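debug: dumping io for the single-chain case to check the tokenizer round-trip. Nothing else runs in this session.
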Amino acid sequence: MDHLEPIPLWTLVANIKQEISYGEGKMETHKGSKQFSPGTKVYIIDWYAGMCQAITVIGLSRDTKKLITIVIRAEWIENFRVKLCYNPKVCSKIKTFDKEEAGMQRYTGKFVNDMFIGIPQWIKPI
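debug: decoded output
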């Protein structure tokens, strides 16, 4: 049965902010985001380093309570940490997202540490 257990993957983990600013001049705030409740744990699986704004995450949906993969703004998350993901459903979603075999090789400690260093620098203080 050991061959059925998922191999853990390095991921960058964060939480959705309690309050997110929206609108013109960022004057309006909402609890969490449209897709995620405040404090929801999300696994950051990809980034758009050239844009410095958007990231791809996996997390439990606010409405359906099912895992979703979605692109959100980097400024909506906080409390970054590097962790090994052992959750078989999340690991499966990551593998589905990155179908290319060569792509799976990037889920290493180095790739995740690069995101850990880079993404928080994109977030501008209010």
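debug: round-trip ok. Residues 12 and 82 are 5 Å apart (CA to CA).
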